[in-house]
Design brief:
Blueprint lengths: L1 E12 L6 H7 L1 E18 L8 E4 L3 E4 L8 H9 L6 E7 L9 H16 L6 H15 L7 H8 L2 E6 L4 E5 L4 H9 L1 E5 L6 H13 L4 H19 L6 H14 L9 H12 L4 E4 L7 E5 L5 H7 L4 E3 L9 E5 L2
Parallel strand pairs: 3-5
Antiparallel strand pairs: 1-2, 1-12, 2-5, 2-6, 3-4, 6-7, 8-10, 8-11, 9-10
């Protein structure tokens, strides 16, 4: 039995510039961190005496006699991609709900590939896991996904990612430990109660990216990555500027597509800002999921009171990326 443990991510700036139609033409970049909320994937060879070749457990239970019968597209594609011929039992457990903007789909893909490679007795690099997850999702499954989520899940930590047609780079952000802890402390995460399929939310944005009608907005979003890095790494800068920059980024992000926000979500954001948050954003594609807010210490109680109907998720930054935490062959 193999168990992989793979983190989800929080993206601060640069989202939208990690789609191939944009970064291959203009270059893209993202500032993000993985957090201590995980997807666990357990894989083992199927029992010889089992009636079914495949048993897959996630939000539903699948028992299948052939690979083609497996409904979960990523599981089916991953097994085929690795050319695994024997039967498998696969179980998925997630700390947070799916389809909520934390990159869980790509986190699962990375964790599944990691576990299957380990079951095959193969050690592969974090970069290879990210690259193959991107290939599986973008090419084999033709999904509307960027590249930041796979890289964040595989590598972990606080990173400045740079995307060009030639390469996908992951550069760790070197920042004072106390400053990093202060940033972590000032970030509050709330679940809106809405889950959504990112592909649906992204349809308008992806089409606009292809036709280059939002290139100006995406350039502004990309420039915020450089500004965010300077705020974090320059001790002379006020860290609260990071929160104010999040606000600017959210205002700009809403211009990418009419599907990113709605009246319910705008009301949540307004309540938090009126209570003392300096800025925030919906994570991921938008349309629901998790709201991240930058809130100074003296405003935290007020923001929590204003958003008392929403579930808050306590989290910390993490540094490990995907790991194999159990192996018994």
């Amino acid at each position: 039995m193999i168990i992989s443990k793979t983190p989800v991510r929080v993206s601060f700036f640069g989202g939208g510039t990690d789609y191939p139609d944009y970064y291959k033409a203009c270059g893209g970049c993202v500032l993000s961190t993985s957090i201590d909320k995980y997807i666990f994937v357990t894989v083992r060879k199927a029992n010889t005496f089992s009636e079914f070749k495949y048993k897959v457990s996630y939000s539903k239970l699948e028992t299948c006699k052939t690979l083609e019968e497996i409904e979960h597209p990523v599981i089916r594609a991953a097994i085929k991609h690795l050319n695994i011929s024997y039967g498998l039992e696969i179980n998925i457990i997630s700390d947070l709900p799916a389809r909520t903007g934390i990159g869980s789909s790509s986190t699962f893909t990375v964790g599944l590939l990691h576990a299957l490679y380990a079951l095959e007795g193969k050690m592969v690099s974090k970069q290879r896991l990210a690259d193959e997850a991107i290939y599986l999702e973008q090419v084999l499954l033709n999904e509307r996904v960027g590249v930041q989520d796979q890289l964040a899940a595989a590598h972990g930590s606080l990173n400045h990612m740079v995307f060009t047609e030639q390469s996908l780079q992951v550069n760790p952000v070197i920042v004072n430990r106390d400053r990093k802890l202060m940033l972590e402390s000032n970030l509050l995460l709330f679940y809106t109660g809405l889950s959504r399929y990112a592909s649906i939310i992204l349809e308008e944005q992806v089409n606009k990216t292809k036709t280059k009608t939002i290139n100006t907005e995406l350039q502004d979003i990309k420039d915020m990555v450089t500004e965010g890095l300077d705020i974090l790494c320059n001790p002379d800068r006020e860290l609260d500027d990071f929160g104010r920059l999040l606000h600017q980024g959210w205002m700009k992000k809403k211009m990418l597509s009419s599907a990113i926000s709605n009246n319910f979500l705008d009301e949540i954001y307004e309540k938090a800002m009126n209570a003392g948050a300096l800025g925030g954003k919906l994570l991921g594609a938008g349309g629901g999921g998790f709201f991240l807010f930058y809130v100074p210490d003296d405003a935290k109680s007020g923001v929590r009171a204003a958003l008392h109907e929403l579930a808050e998720v306590d989290f910390r930054f993490e540094n490990d990326g995907t790991r194999i935490i159990h192996m018994s062959m």
